[in-house]
Amino acid sequence: MKFDIGDTVLLLHSGEEGVIVEELNNDMVKVNVNGTIFPVHIDQIDFPYFKRFTEKNFTKRKPPVVPGEFLPVEKQKPEKRPEKGVLISFLPEYDHSTSEPLVRLLKIYLVNETALTYLFDYRLLFNENLDVEVKNELLPFNHFYVQDITFESLNDRPKFEFNFSLQQPDDSKEPDYSFGFKLKAKQVIRKLQDMENGGEATFSYILFEKYPDKVQRNSDKWDIPSSVKKVEYFRPAVTSFRLPQYEVDLHIEKLTEDYKNLSPSDMLAIQLGEFQRQLDEAIAHHQFSIVIIHGVGKGTLRNEVHEILRHTPEVKSFVNQYNPRYGYGATEIFFEYS
Predict the structure, then answer these.
(1) Is the torsion defined by CA of 220, 225, 229, 232 positive or negative?
(2) Tens of pLDDT along 282-300?
(3) What fold characterizes domain 85-208?
(4) For domain 220-335, which architecture applies?
(5) Are the C-beta atoms of 290 and 282 separated by less than 8 Å?
């Protein structure tokens, strides 16, 4: 291998420079770019010296200005680039060792075709297990190389999850924007065929065309169980998804710092409000299951949680049995979607 740990290298696709921190095998290394460490193939990196040399600004002597020869140049207004949104783009790499080239892997990029800078959290899961997480910034009209995935891994139910926020906060915009999508092998094969027919090098999906404006949430009143009728609680409509939670702790000290001054009915209202919100988001994410930690106590919170679950169509079943971690203080919920 021509590279060693500690070498400064250039990422050929993004133009970024990083430092090799680990050798994975003869074909791959791990590179640290601005604090983000990720694997790359050695054919996608090179030493940066040629780039640095070609980008040097050599000082050129200006020709002398002869009186009468100077003509003012009219300044041209820069053209405003059209904004197409933020996309995820896939660059296929082919194996040419066979009679017919086959797709060996897909290189994944985030592409920013807007004038804004975003902070992002990218997560890729296979079979609901986290494989890679990358946090960084996405500059205006620029792209960011994320990772490679093998073509065979499309059979492992890849699921992409994103959380975007503005680098410069804007009170008129949402503080963050989270969503996800699943990639199926049939979709990719169809995209590859369209790509080849159109003579394109990549295929892409639009993640969003415009960062969402802040939504004035119209509170929908939620019917509180009879035991907490004294407290009025409003459940905001779910307008943007956050990353899914698979374990939710409803102990009051986890939900508010001022719990010592609350009455039992106030505490129960807060706990049920948080439970309903987490239940809504789990269903919105089409999660398979979620664990709700309600504690043991007198069983009031547990009973109210179970009553809500009995009237939720997406709940297939739930169980409150002994668990080494929670004892009898948690209920596991399983969902079913039509």
Answers:
(1) negative
(2) 888 888 899 999 998 888 9
(3) Immunoglobulin-like (2.60.40)
(4) 2-Layer Sandwich (3.30)
(5) yes
